[in-house]
Inverse folding.
């Protein structure tokens, strides 16, 4: 937190002198002074428009008091503000009467009733009675403006919040005012729905019940809601949310305004996928493979299921057990599993990433950057996945900073991304050749080279494509470290608490607290007794080992390698060849369906603890509802398994686990339970220390494409077949079927029309997919979303290849 | 013949000459006044040539010395307005406000139709004085003839080297871009006009900044001038500020164009001497309007466009001088005088004006959007004989939310009512909201008995309208 700049401006509000900051508006100064000025259109995260006139107050700048909109007038020294004058009160009454003349007053059937700013401010500042006897404006009541949002134009007071958000914040100006005067209304353009990834925010900031979200409509009344503050774990951004439930069922998430992370915004995926927690399809009881009919899983009691699992672990021995996953877990759960693997089983075959990320020892050793650093850096270099699709709120923050001129976004990658509209430069390169592209840029006399070399640089760093190995990204990092040593890194990692899981040691070669397995801390050694002697296998290594019969027991810790590992064929072979697959999950995913033992775990909102975002910021998760059936917290399952293996993890509550983490994890020393449970955790506690040393391989150039094939590029879409999306009825239909995008010239060369089904051939598989011509795709490449319903790119990818080529043929 | 359409454009009717010196209407008598040939033959572009021989500062000073008041409505001195451009911020733009749409006003239309080259020359002089290289000429969407005439004149002037690169072999280069409006009254407000020019919805910008001269078109310093204001520049440059200030009064020099409509014998556009001509001269003068039609009694007149508070015969002797009209409770505005004789149904006349402003509200701020229509609904009820005495109070109370405090109005000596001086206070962003209230307030203050007659006997509760035309 930066210190507020000392101010020389003194403003008198209602007779009390307050210090104000130059440039801020009267309404903001009043807010800080604890004087509430009623408002509808003003929103602290958007530019003021002065439309509603509700915030008119008497402002005297030396020429006598005058009614002025306090959201539009900047403070000036010696200004005197009266928010309670007779004129102000009369104006407030008048404006509210105006707002209500055409408002339907259908509060009893309005979702907003009970938490409605119009209702509340009418009670506080409005006239007692209406003098309006004419007929009110009529419009068709709610019309869907997207799959998720309904608009009731009769309730709308035209405050420009939603339209401003869509244009200014989201960059999706798909709703705007139509008509004029008394007939003004908010509408979408014909045949163009408000299909923004961020549409839910408009519902949250609507000061009346004009915008309602399909997943919440008529689900609850505000006074029946209970609420806790928590952190979203849909992706690794760590947005703060208010989790609301009614009758022990999650019904709504609201974004919480946190300066360092999400500014109050949420993406629609994070906002609405609470539906999956309430799903009927949740795994609620342990399952075990039926001996008589191996095609099915049977319900069983916990004791028997754990016994089978423990026996499989015991029989395999430390070297032949592997644990894949852990990014769904809280930090505490991840630590418990890390301790279980290292000190009880004695294996370092643990990996929270599914072969789609970056080596943990690199992620944890790179010079760190925060999201705020990125938003104020001279240049943000985005090299990784399409952050609009995978880290949507990071995209929003960068977009906001770039459009306000606070930073310059430069992206390097093979194909168009969501950053392109606001990027200073989008450098296109062949798949896997980002390092080469950057080297060439830096060696040129392009002014951008100077900008990167001289100014501050934050690299949003991840794997640009699921169809390439980590090597191209590491090559790029090596170039940056050599050429731009001042650059800092913000890892763009996939899945909820992946950063926390790595911090807790769920990665080969890493111990809790970002330490090398060869250099355990004294405290850790004393607590754990022993640590594995050598670095274990990562996910790709474990799947190879299982496929070749070198690994007997695979534990899937909330992981679904069949859907999420880049190479489905390898994952399938591994799961088939492993003697025992133990899955701990919320749903029967593709992989869980193949498991020998499935154990139900608690889901989001059913567990407390902490989570860590991509910056290393630790914030709290709060339990709101009770889990269904006999689902248990992951740490309890680890404890139970340890017990059945004849040991004791020595952990009996999440608080106790955190105390142990603070004690044994060097990077987390000083982050006490008291701090984590204090108000400090509202912004999150940033932990950036690391004792790992950075070792990057020398840059390599991927093999040259053969000229007959197309180099495959694959990334995730916001709406895909991810488990939580697929089990949220409102979101599931938003995921489009897969289509292979190819440059029209490449299609023409093969005699294929856009929309034709084609045969796609790779070294791994041959399948039929629809091909679409898209001139934004680079020639010689093909783009296939990674995980759409109906089949993903993982069928074609060879996890060991630096890059993957495909060929397409007419049927 | 018009090159663009191939059709002959008839001379626009409406101008009536009188004995006044003619500064901006000097060519109006010629059938071909809009052509470059006629313009050059009558001293056209001489002002520009004179200007180019002087420094921009000298030209700017000449205009400042002439005290050329803006003719769009606010009456702000053009030379002073030009000086608001922050120094060393480039580029700057000139925007010509040709979106003349104040009810009753049609003088700029004539200037564009009958003497487009005079306007273009004025633009060039302004550009030279302030150091602008791009000018946007925004012509109201409904004025088809004016658009074609201006377009044709621009083509001629480009071809003759008056616009473009190195004008008249000087270092001075300007481009003038013609833009057609899409039909919204509020776009006559300068910031809404800029929004419209940028391709956005025509809605006024918020103040501060109060003047587009600091932040205007595309965020750059922008001078917005009215058509008539700019049309005065060639004459001022040719004859000098001294000749200009010799006409009219010190605070309101020169001539101005007024558009008279309504119940006079000869309605039309007149060029009159500023500052000294009185309303009586204009309405009753034998070389001007020639009196009220059928020699009826004058009941009321709107002195400065539909949004101005009304005057009655008691104010006839006021001159066209803002400093005298303001204290008497109204404004000179856009120079539109609408005359109502004794046969006029005052509440109905007020409804006509209020309906216009309610319809033209852009919908941006609440008091105008909701209040304007509500005022219209109440007034309609009264006019149609369905109102009550309570409604007359309600009209004022609703209006007071748009314009808090005392609203300006004229004195009525016979009733012992004293004038409330201009201007009013307002809760809205621009003047459209107050303009919906102004006719109602004037009519009710000056002619309350006519309203009372309409509601007489209606002591039952107000009836509810079933259908509303939204």
């Amino acid at each position: 937190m930066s210190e507020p700049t000392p101010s020389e401006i003194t403003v008198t509000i209602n007779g009390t002198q307050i210090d104000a900051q130059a440039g801020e508006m009267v309404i903001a100064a009043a807010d800080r002074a604890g004087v509430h000025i009623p408002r509808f259109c003003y929103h602290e995260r958007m530019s003021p428009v002065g439309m509603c006139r509700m915030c008119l107050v008497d402002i005297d700048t030396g020429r006598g008091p005058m009614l002025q909109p306090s959201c539009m007038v900047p403070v000036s020294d010696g200004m005197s503000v009266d928010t309670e004058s007779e004129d102000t009160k009369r104006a407030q009454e008048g404006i509210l009467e105006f707002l209500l003349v055409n408002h339907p007053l259908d509060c009893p059937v309005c979702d907003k009733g009970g938490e409605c700013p119009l209702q509340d401010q009418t009670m506080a500042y409005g006239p007692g009675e209406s003098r309006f006897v004419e007929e009110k404006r009529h419009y068709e009541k709610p019309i869907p403006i997207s799959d998720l949002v309904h608009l009731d134009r009769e309730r709308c007071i035209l405050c420009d919040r939603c339209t401003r958000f869509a244009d200014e914040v989201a960059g999706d100006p798909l709703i705007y005012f139509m008509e004029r005067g008394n007939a003004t209304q908010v509408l979408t353009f014909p045949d163009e729905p408000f299909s923004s990834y961020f549409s839910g925010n408009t519902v949250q900031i609507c000061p009346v019940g004009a915008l309602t979200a399909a997943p919440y409509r008529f689900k609850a009344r505000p006074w029946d809601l209970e609420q806790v503050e928590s952190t979203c774990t849909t992706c690794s951004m760590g947005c703060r949310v208010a989790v609301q439930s009614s009758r022990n069922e999650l019904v709504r998430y609201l974004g919480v305004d946190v300066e360092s992370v999400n500014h109050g915004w949420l993406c629609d995926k994070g906002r609405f996928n609470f539906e999956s927690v309430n799903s009927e399809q949740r795994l609620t009881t342990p399952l075990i493979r039926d001996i008589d009919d191996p095609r099915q899983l049977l319900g069983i009691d916990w004791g028997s299921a754990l016994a089978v699992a423990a026996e499989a672990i015991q029989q395999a021995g430390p070297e032949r057990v592997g644990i894949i996953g852990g990014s769904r877990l809280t930090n505490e759960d991840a630590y418990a599993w890390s301790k279980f693997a290292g000190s009880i089983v004695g294996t370092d075959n643990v990996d929270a990433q599914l072969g789609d990320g970056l080596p943990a020892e690199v992620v944890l050793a790179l010079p760190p950057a925060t999201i705020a650093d990125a938003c104020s850096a001279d240049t943000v270099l985005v090299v990784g996945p399409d952050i609009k699709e995978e880290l949507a709120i990071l995209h929003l923050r960068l977009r906001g900073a770039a459009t306000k001129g606070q930073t310059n976004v430069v992206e390097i990658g093979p194909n168009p991304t969501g950053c392109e509209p606001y990027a200073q430069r989008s450098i296109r390169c062949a798949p896997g050749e980002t390092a080469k592209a950057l080297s060439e840029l830096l060696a040129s006399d392009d002014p951008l080279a100077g900008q990167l070399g001289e100014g501050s640089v934050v690299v949003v760093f991840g794997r640009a494509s699921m169809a390439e190995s980590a090597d191209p990204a590491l090559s790029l990092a090596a170039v940056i470290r050599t050429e731009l040593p001042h650059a800092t890194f913000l890892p763009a990692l996939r899945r909820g608490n992946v950063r926390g899981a790595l911090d807790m040691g769920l990665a080969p070669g890493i111990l809790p607290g970002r330490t090398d397995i060869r250099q355990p801390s004294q405290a850790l050694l004393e607590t754990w007794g022993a640590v594995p002697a050598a670095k274990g296998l990562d996910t790709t290594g474990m799947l190879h080992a299982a496929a070749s019969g070198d690994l007997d027991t695979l534990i899937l810790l909330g992981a679904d390698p069949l859907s999420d590992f880049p190479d489905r064929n390898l994952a399938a072979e591994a799961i088939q060849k492993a003697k025992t697959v133990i899955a701990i999950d919320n749903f029967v995913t593709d992989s869980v369906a193949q498991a020998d033992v499935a154990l139900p775990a608690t889901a989001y909102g059913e567990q407390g603890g902490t989570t860590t975002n991509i910056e290393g910021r630790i914030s709290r998760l709060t339990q709101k509802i009770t889990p269904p059936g006999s689902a248990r917290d992951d740490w309890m399952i680890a404890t139970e398994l340890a017990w059945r293996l004849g040991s004791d993890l020595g952990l009996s509550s999440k608080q106790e686990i955190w105390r142990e983490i603070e004690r044994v994890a060097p990077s987390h020393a000083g982050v006490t339970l008291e701090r984590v449970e204090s108000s400090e955790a509202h912004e999150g506690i940033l932990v950036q220390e690391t004792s790992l040393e950075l070792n990057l391989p020398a840059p390599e150039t991927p093999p040259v494409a053969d000229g007959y094939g197309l180099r495959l590029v694959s990334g995730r879409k916001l709406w895909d077949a991810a488990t939580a999306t697929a089990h949220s009825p409102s979101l599931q239909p938003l995921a489009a079927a897969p289509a292979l995008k190819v440059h029209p010239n490449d299609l023409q060369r093969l005699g294929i029309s856009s929309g034709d089904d084609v045969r796609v051939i790779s070294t791994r598989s041959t399948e039929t997919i629809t091909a679409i011509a898209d001139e934004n795709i680079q020639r010689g490449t093909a783009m296939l979303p990674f995980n759409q319903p109906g089949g993903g790119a993982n069928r074609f990818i060879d996890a060991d290849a630096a890059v993957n080529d495909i060929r397409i043929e007419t049927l | 013949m018009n090159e663009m359409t191939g059709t002959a454009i008839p001379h626009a009717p409406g101008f009536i000459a009188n004995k006044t010196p003619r500064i901006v209407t000097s060519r109006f008598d010629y059938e071909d006044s809009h052509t470059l040939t006629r313009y050059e033959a009558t001293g056209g572009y001489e002002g520009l040539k004179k200007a180019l021989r002087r420094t921009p500062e000298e030209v700017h000073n000449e205009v400042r010395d002439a005290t050329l008041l803006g003719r769009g409505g606010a009456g702000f001195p053009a030379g002073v307005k030009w000086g608001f451009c922050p120094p060393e911020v480039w580029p700057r733009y000139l925007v010509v406000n040709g979106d003349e749409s104040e009810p009753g006003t049609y003088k700029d239309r004539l200037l564009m139709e009958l003497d487009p080259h005079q306007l273009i020359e004025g633009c060039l002089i302004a550009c030279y004085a302030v150091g602008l290289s791009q000018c946007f000429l925004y012509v109201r969407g409904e004025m088809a003839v004016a658009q074609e005439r201006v377009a044709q004149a621009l083509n001629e002037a480009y071809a003759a080297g008056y616009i473009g690169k190195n004008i008249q072999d000087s270092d001075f280069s300007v481009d003038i871009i013609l833009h057609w409006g899409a039909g919204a009254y509020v776009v006559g407000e300068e910031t809404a006009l800029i929004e419209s020019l940028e391709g956005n919805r025509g809605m006024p910008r918020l103040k501060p900044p109060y003047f587009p001269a600091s932040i205007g078109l595309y965020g750059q310093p922008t001078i917005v001038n009215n058509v008539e204001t700019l049309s005065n520049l060639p004459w001022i440059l040719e004859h000098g500020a001294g000749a200009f200030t010799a006409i009219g009064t010190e605070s309101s020099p020169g001539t101005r164009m007024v558009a008279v409509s309504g119940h006079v014998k000869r309605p039309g556009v007149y060029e009159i001497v500023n500052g000294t001509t009185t309303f009586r001269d204009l309405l009753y003068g034998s070389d001007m309007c020639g009196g009220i039609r059928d020699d009826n009694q004058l009941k009321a007149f709107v002195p400065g466009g539909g949004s101005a508070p009304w005057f009655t015969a008691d104010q006839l002797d006021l001159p066209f001088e803002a400093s005298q009209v303001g204290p008497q409770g109204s404004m000179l505005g856009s120079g539109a005088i609408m005359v109502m004789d004794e046969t006029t149904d005052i509440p109905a006349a007020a409804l006509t004006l209020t309906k216009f402003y309610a319809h033209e509200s852009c919908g941006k701020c609440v008091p105008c959007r909701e209040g304007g229509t509500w005022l219209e609904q109440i007034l309609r009820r009264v006019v149609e004989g369905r109102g009550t005495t309570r409604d007359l109070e309600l009209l004022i109370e609703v209006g007071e939310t748009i314009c808090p405090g005392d609203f300006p109005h004229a004195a009525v000596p016979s009733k012992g009512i004293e004038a409330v001086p201009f201007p009013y206070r307002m809760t809205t962003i621009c003047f459209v909201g107050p303009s919906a209230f102004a006719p109602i307030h004037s009519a009710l203050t000056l002619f309350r008995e006519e309203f009372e007659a309409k509601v007489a006997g209606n002591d039952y509760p107000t009836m509810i309208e079933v259908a509303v035309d939204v």
Summary: The radius of gyration of chain B is 23 Å. Residues 255-341 of chain B form a domain with the Ubiquitin-like (UB roll) fold (CATH 3.10.20.600). Chain B has three domains: 36-245, 255-341, 346-455. Residues 366-383 of chain B form the longest helix (18 residues).
